[in-house]
Design brief:
- The structure holds three protein chains of three kinds.
- By secondary structure, chain A is an all-alpha fold.
- Chain A contains twelve helices and no strands.
- By secondary structure, chain B is mainly α.
- Chain B has one domain: MetI-like (MetI-like fold, Orthogonal Bundle), CATH 1.10.3720.10.
- Chain B starts with 21 loop residues before the first helix and ends in an 8-residue tail after the last helix.
- By secondary structure, chain C is α/β, with parallel strands linked by helices.
- Chain C folds into three domains: 252 residues, 3-Layer(aba) Sandwich (Rossmann fold), CATH 3.40.50; 174 residues, 3-Layer(aba) Sandwich (Rossmann fold), CATH 3.40.50; 68 residues, no CATH class.
- Chain C is 34% helix and 24% strand.
- In chain C, helix 5 crosses helix 7.
- Chain C is globular, with a radius of gyration of 26 Å.
- Classes of the chains: A mainly alpha, B mainly alpha, C alpha/beta.
- Chains in contact: A-B, A-C, B-C.
- The interface between A and B is large, with 77 and 61 residues.
């Protein structure tokens, strides 16, 4: 098991390195001179050269990437071009907000979706099942962008139940929660339906398996049969989907942050982009790539913990 | 497998074993209310977008400052925007953009993904491993953040949007094709084909591809609403379509800026997007259920 | 243990009729399982025997309806059981063993968990339960039981898993043990051991048993009584001695006749269901002396070695540890024109690998295969193509070996298309081939999934003979077929051979069929040929222990001589 974890994690690291390096190359081989674009129209050749040297942009790609990654390990991601602030610090300030949003969305999605799916599987063709089937498909369909905007119009502007802007006062947990509801729902609710259907399908398939019949043949209480025997296995595809879903929710979070004017790396990225702030861009990409790869790796590991057959993962 | 143990991004993808019969599948589709609903929405949408030139009552770029921020009326079915342009007409042309992007991006990603998937399945193990790592690396990029990173550098445009969407969709198709191809290649009837002396060409085109193509097309149809939504999102952020072209995302962005002046603009801008994603999702899900013999969805 | 007439029957089924929607699964079935008796429920697929077992357990699928009759367990009507009653019964006084232990044991729980779970009703401590589990595992012959408790089902072999299933069933000392095809998936030698184990355990515990199977030989050696079912209707019932010794019903007679194990002498034509069961058995010795050693060898295999190996990629970074398996070791065999030779071995013997190597699906690592003046192991993939016309293969899974998207008429003529053999009318040719294997017009446009196992086998055979090969490799041609159909397929193969003079290489684990239609037999064990000789000599004078074991495991000479019970 430990070996399995090690293998997965090292693979994850490899992927992150590859992804970030590739992006680095993509960004810096784009048309146009990045430095003069950064400095703006009033740059002189000397300034350009100086900035080039400072950013290490006159070195071959491999060296640049190596320096960047080395810096990343020690927490040095360069300085914000515009403000001169340390990128790492800036990102670490904003990241928790985004994480909070994504976690809340995840909780909503899993907290509502999994029980709903379970219930539907155990009571197939009940009105709950049918209704949730239709609603979940409809809600999956809506992009979180739309849900965020419409949600804001309905709940903030019209009904005034929930705040429209910001993340709430620092230190006031309830206020922050209040501000979190609408964005988290916008990002997570599409996944409720998706997860519910997934869990339902997986449960139905598992319940039809022989070992469930056998478990019943041994007279085991139904509650055990469902939760100890069936659910464990049905959960595997769900966990995998959640692992990947976090990545998508990250995208949804970017929209939510922009629309609700919340702090977070999405908003930071958006603003950074507007100003063509390379270090910020690379820093955010690094962080979000790590996040995505980490969640997928984690979900694989959790799955292997649940289902021992996966521990000997062969191709 | 590298980052995943189950077969695909969407583990509920069907690998159809039978029915072979197209008409059986379509019969089931038409008897499913969701499928019919989706079909109606989609065909209406496609029809109206394709014939936007004829149907649109106004020129989408026609500015009429006197008619700004009109609420929906018989004159302007979806109202007018901040420059007095008819939102309905703009929505129709935006539909053209959306469908264009969706189909082109999906088709390209499907083609590239299929090529990579088949190569990985057929080729030597080392090639397989390289392709899988490559696909997993692409999947590590969050789409929006990638777009925000690359967009300003390369300049926002239709091509960029399609490029990004194709790039990030390839792993989705690639993995599924690879898994499907691998599972078909391990069946006994493929062995029988080899034992009879069938060449790789024949096996691929007469046996492997036909058995994969059904699920692939269904996967593509389920991906279209995602791509439409993604394009709208990217245009909303300003890294996608730029004026004078229309896009639903762009309309949403404009509407959002004036949300305090009037919420109707952004609501109206969102309606076509909602219809499109709803319609395609319903259709895609219904297609999947119609052609999957193991489907147990409550009807 | 003597039959106690005083005690009421453990299970009494009275006039049970059961249907799945419009399909009548059981009609007016009555059966008594006496206290301490072993009842064999025998029938072919679709006979309703499994349904009867599940009905007794009360675990029928939702669409099942009992339209009439009653099942009484220990005197109580099970229809009156509520969930709590069933929880006290199932796994306690009535236990169940299913066919496939891999699918029967939940994969996410350790053996220890599984075995302590089922003891949840008792008030013992965890340690006591574990100790009981370990003791039972030891009793069923599982080595290192303490270690096994921490392992998972998929980490063990099929035989070990079945022993665990048995352990779980007997641990609670039930009154009735229901075994549904419990030995069907096992190799013959293992089956023998398991049957022995079951007999011992039954004696010790004194429980009654319902043993559902299609394998008559097992019933003969294990059971006291037997019930014969066909299409949900009881054909005959009684003690094994009576029913097998002097069968009364036509179906029973046919079943016994068609079981290849019942037939003592070698015959080219096995009896089938269409024969009159009362007529004397026709022994067809076939064209005598077909294989004289003067006939030149068609295929000469010398010192063949096939090893599967895979190196781990990136030093195992991706979870790939690589492996090396020597499937075929230094094997030599020669096959003459027109002869039928059987390679017999159990799972893991390498026989399938051998077959695949001969037809070019597997590369050999050493040795040679001489055919038609060439060494097949030296040929490139492209060169092999011409050989493929001369050697055809019929795969084990009849439906799976046919492309699911092609119609039968296309399937049987595909070899012609692949090899570019000119044909004026493909449809007519397809019809001709189908006629040769006994299938009529109506099969021309069917798809593989719409056919039964026997029909699909015939299609496979038709495809195999399309190019008039010189040898056909038949991989387990009778696997998965009901006994009555087995005879038909084997007769068909013999007919084709008589007509075309094709050589046949049979790959099988079933010695019974081998005895009748093959001229020579090669016993394969762990990749090596232990013995090769004519069928008669192998059966009469087996030289190796393993061969003897195989023979005794399969052949049940006389059904009337076995029982200690009345």
């Amino acid at each position: 098991m430990l070996l399995f974890c090690l293998k997965r994690v090292s693979l994850g690291v490899l992927i992150v390195v590859l992804a970030v390096s590739t992006l680095y190359v993509m960004l810096l081989s784009a048309p146009g001179d990045p430095v003069s674009m950064m400095l703006g129209p009033r740059s002189t050749p000397e300034m350009v050269a100086a900035l080039n040297a400072r950013l290490g942009l006159d070195q071959p790609f491999f060296v640049q990437i190596w320096l960047f990654l080395k810096g990343a390990l020690t927490g040095d991601l360069g300085q914000d071009i515009k403000t001169g602030r340390d990128v790492f610090t800036s990102i670490m300030e904003q990241l928790p907000h985004t994480l909070r949003l994504v976690c809340a969305a995840l909780l909503i999605a899993a907290g509502l979706g999994i029980p709903l799916g379970c219930y539907s599987a155990l009571h197939p063709n009940s009105w709950v099942d049918r209704l949730s089937g239709i609603i979940s498909v409809s809600v999956i369909a809506m992009p979180s962008l739309i849900l965020a905007i419409y949600g804001m119009i309905l709940f903030s502007v019209q009904l005034r139940w929930l705040p429209a802007i910001g993340a709430g006062d620092k230190g006031d947990f309830l206020d922050q929660l209040h501000h979190l509801i609408l964005p988290a729902v916008a990002v997570g609710i599409g996944w409720v339906g998706y997860l519910a259907r997934l869990v339902r399908a997986a449960m139905l398939e598992v319940m039809a398996e022989d070992y469930i019949l056998n478990a019943r043949a041994y007279g085991l209480p139904e509650r055990w049969v469902v939760y100890r025997y069936a659910l464990r296995l049905a959960v595997a595809p769900t966990i995998t989907v959640l692992g990947i879903g976090v990545g998508f929710m990250l995208g949804g979070a970017v929209f939510a942050e922009i629309i609700f004017a919340r702090p977070g790396i999405g908003k930071m990225m958006f603003d950074g982009v507007v100003a063509r702030n390379y270090p910020i861009t690379m820093g955010v990409v690094l962080v979000s790539t790590i996040l995505m790869v980490a969640t997928v790796t984690l979900s694989d590991i959790i799955n292997a913990m649940i289902d021992p057959r996966l521990r000997k993962a062969q191709e | 497998m590298t980052l995943e143990n189950t077969s695909s991004v969407r583990p509920d993808s069907p690998i159809v074993r039978s029915p072979n019969n197209l008409s059986v599948g379509f019969g089931r589709l038409l008897s499913d209310p969701m499928g019919v609903f989706g079909l109606i929405l989609v065909s209406t949408l496609v029809f109206m977008s394709v014939f936007a030139g004829i149907i649109a009552p106004y020129d989408p770029a026609a500015i009429d400052v006197l008619q700004r921020f009109e609420t929906p009326s018989w004159d302007h079915l979806l109202g007018t925007d901040e420059l007095g342009r008819d939102v309905f007409s703009r929505a129709l042309y935006g539909g053209q953009t959306a469908l264009k992007v969706a189909f082109m991006a999906t088709f390209a990603a499907l083609a590239i993904g299929t090529f990579l998937g088949i190569t990985a399945a057929y080729g030597p193990k080392w090639l397989d491993n390289i392709i899988v790592i490559m696909l997993d690396t692409i999947r590590a990029y969050p789409v929006i953040i990638l777009a925000l990173a690359v967009g300003p550098i390369f300049g926002a445009s239709l091509t960029l949007v399609i490029g990004i969407l194709v790039f990030t969709s390839v792993p989705y198709y690639g993995r599924i094709v690879r898994t499907a191809a691998l599972s078909v290649l391990q069946t006994e009837y493929i062995d029988a084909e080899h034992a009879m002396g069938a060449g790789t060409f024949r096996v691929t085109f007469k046996h492997v591809l036909p058995n994969i193509i059904g699920p692939m097309l269904i996967m593509a149809s389920m991906d279209i609403p995602v791509v439409i939504a993604a394009e709208a999102g990217l245009s909303f952020l300003g890294v996608g379509i730029k004026p004078p072209d229309t896009s639903w995302g762009l309309m949403l962005d404009q509407g959002y800026r004036f949300i305090n002046r009037t919420p109707w603009l952004v609501i109206a801008a969102g309606i076509p997007l909602v219809i499109a994603t709803l319609g395609f999702t319903f259709l895609g899900e219904a297609l999947r259920d119609a052609f999957d013999p193991k489907s147990q969805r409550a009807r | 243990m003597a039959f106690d007439h005083q005690k009421p029957p453990t299970l009494r089924v009275s006039n049970l009729s059961l249907n799945f929607g419009p399909v009548q699964a059981l009609s007016n079935v009555s059966m008594d399982i006496g206290h301490g008796r072993i009842m064999g429920v025998v029938g072919e697929s679709g006979s309703g025997k499994s349904t009867l077992a599940r009905a007794t357990l009360g675990l029928l699928p939702g669409i099942a309806e009992i339209s009439a009759g009653r099942i009484e367990f220990e005197g109580q009507d099970v229809a009156l059981f509520d969930a709590a009653d069933w929880r006290q019964t199932r796994g306690a006084t009535m236990t169940y063993i299913s066919q496939d232990p891999l699918r029967a044991l939940a994969p996410t729980l350790t053996i220890g968990d599984l075995m302590t779970d089922i003891q949840y009703r008792s008030a013992e401590t965890k340690q006591e339960k574990r100790a009981k589990a370990i003791a039972t595992l030891e009793r069923v012959g599982l080595p290192n039981p303490e270690q096994r408790m921490k392992m998972y089902p998929h980490e063990m072999s099929g035989g070990q898993r079945q022993r665990i299933s048995i352990a779980m069933a007997v641990m609670q000392k039930p009154a009735l043990l229901i075994a549904d095809e419990a030995t069907t998936a096992l190799d013959a030698t293992l089956e023998l051991e398991i049957i022995g184990l079951l007999k011992e355990l039954q004696s010790e515990i004194g429980c009654s048993m319902m043993f559902v199977t299609h394998h008559l030989g097992v019933v003969a050696s294990l059971c006291d009584d037997v019930t014969v079912l066909h299409n949900g209707v009881i054909q005959e019932q009684g003690t094994v001695r009576d029913v097998f010794g002097s069968p009364q019903a036509r179906y029973t007679k046919t079943l016994l006749r068609c079981d290849p194990a019942m037939i003592q002498q070698k015959t080219r034509r096995l009896p089938t269901t269409s024969d009159d069961p009362d007529a004397p058995l026709v022994i067809d010795t076939g064209p005598g002396d077909r294989i004289k050693s003067q006939k030149p060898p068609l295929i000469d295999i010398k010192n063949l070695d096939v090893t599967f190996r895979q190196k781990p990629f990136l030093g195992g970074l991706l979870g790939d540890t690589g492996y090396e398996i020597n499937a075929v070791k230094n094997a030599s065999l020669s096959i003459s024109e027109g002869e039928t030779i059987a390679v017999v071995g159990e799972s893991g013997s390498g026989k399938t690998t051998l077959a695949r190597t001969i037809v070019g699906l597997q590369k050999a690592d050493a040795g040679s295969i001489h055919f038609g003046g060439q060494d097949l192991t030296q040929l490139t993939h492209a060169q092999y193509r011409t050989i493929r016309k001369d050697i055809a293969i019929m795969f084990q899974d009849p439906v799976g070996a046919l492309s699911p998207r092609m119609r039968v008429s296309e399937i049987v003529t595909e070899p012609l298309v692949i090899h570019g053999v000119a044909c004026e009318d493909y449809e007519a040719e397809a019809r001709r081939l189908l006629a040769l294997v006994g299938l009529d017009e109506s099969f021309m446009h069917r798809y593989p999934h719409a056919m039964s196992g026997g029909q699909a086998r015939r299609v496979s055979l038709a495809r195999a003979i399309a190019l008039q090969p010189r040898m056909i490799v038949a991989d387990e041609p009778t696997a998965g077929l009901d006994v009555s159909i087995q005879g038909e397929i084997l007769n068909l193969i013999a007919e084709i051979q008589d007509g075309t003079g094709v050589a046949i290489l049979l790959i099988t684990h079933n010695l019974n069929v081998v005895r009748h239609i093959s001229d020579r037999v090669a016993i394969m064990y762990m990749g090596d040929f232990l013995e090769i000789g004519t069928t008669e000599s192998i059966f009469a004078n087996p030289k190796h222990d393993y061969t003897r074991k195989l023979i005794s495991a399969h052949v049940h000479p006389d059904f009337s001589v076995t029982q200690a019970h009345g």
